[in-house]
Design a protein that fits this description.
heterodimer, A: six-stranded mixed β-sheet, B: mainly beta, seven-stranded mixed β-sheet, globular
């Protein structure tokens, strides 16, 4: 069975500092990997995703994530965070060959950016 | 473009009452699903549907019913509410053809069962 582990429930960081949010997954089949962001009292929005090809994927607001198959990881990074990046971030996985689009989510990491 | 619309946004129920959370999408998506979000547990899949007339159970289906009579609508029914069903509920949709399609989420329904 697939599972997703986000070890850090909360990551405090100062504005303009770099940040890494960790995500590890387990699966016996090929996977697709996603990062979703949830701002307070809102639904989830797709931040970026890895389907195939280049292992480094980027979002439009400066985040990037690298798929590492040997370490079964998909960590999210940003070189310089802003106050507006404060949100909860969820890593998710879906089966590569699945006929449906079910996502398995991690427990989330709250990124708290401090001035 | 309305996207995925959920109603109501907030609801308080008494134990044993029934209610329906409504979900509608205007993107002609085949795939729709319901998740619940609880502190420290992320999002867990309750039920999903790959098209009108087709539904299936997710990870935590007990106490919930769904139906999919149209492509646009996917209501979630609580038959006899329990305090353990206090949660935030999210409806989501996507195209199911093609792999790794982006899933779009509604803004959530906050449910409290007292």
């Amino acid at each position: 069975a697939q599972s997703v582990t986000q070890l850090d429930s909360q990551v405090p960081v100062f504005e303009e500092a770099p940040v890494e949010l960790r995500c590890n997954y387990s699966s016996s089949v090929s996977v697709y990997l996603f990062w979703y962001v949830q701002y307070p009292n809102q639904g989830l929005q797709l931040l970026l995703k890895y389907l195939s090809g280049s292992t480094l994927v980027e979002s439009i607001n400066g985040f990037e994530a690298e798929f590492n198959k040997s370490q079964t990881s998909f960590h999210l990074r940003k070189p310089s965070v802003h106050i507006s990046d404060t949100a909860e971030y969820f890593c998710a996985v879906s089966e590569g060959g699945g006929a449906t689009n079910k996502l398995i989510f991690g427990t989330g990491t709250l990124l708290a950016v401090q001035p | 473009n309305a996207g995925v619309t959920q109603t109501p946004k907030f609801q308080v129920l008494k134990t044993g009452q029934s209610m329906t959370l409504q979900c509608a999408q205007d993107m002609n998506h085949e795939y729709m699903s319901w998740y619940r979000q609880d502190p420290g547990m992320g999002l867990r899949l309750i039920h999903y549907s790959v098209g009108a007339g087709i539904t299936d159970q997710g990870e935590v289906p007990n106490g919930y019913n769904v139906s999919r009579s149209t492509t646009e609508d996917f209501p979630l029914r609580l038959l006899s509410a329990a305090p353990s069903q206090t949660s935030v509920y999210f409806c989501a949709s996507s195209y199911s053809t093609g792999r790794g399609n982006t899933i779009y989420f509604g803004e959530g329904s906050w449910l409290t069962v007292v």
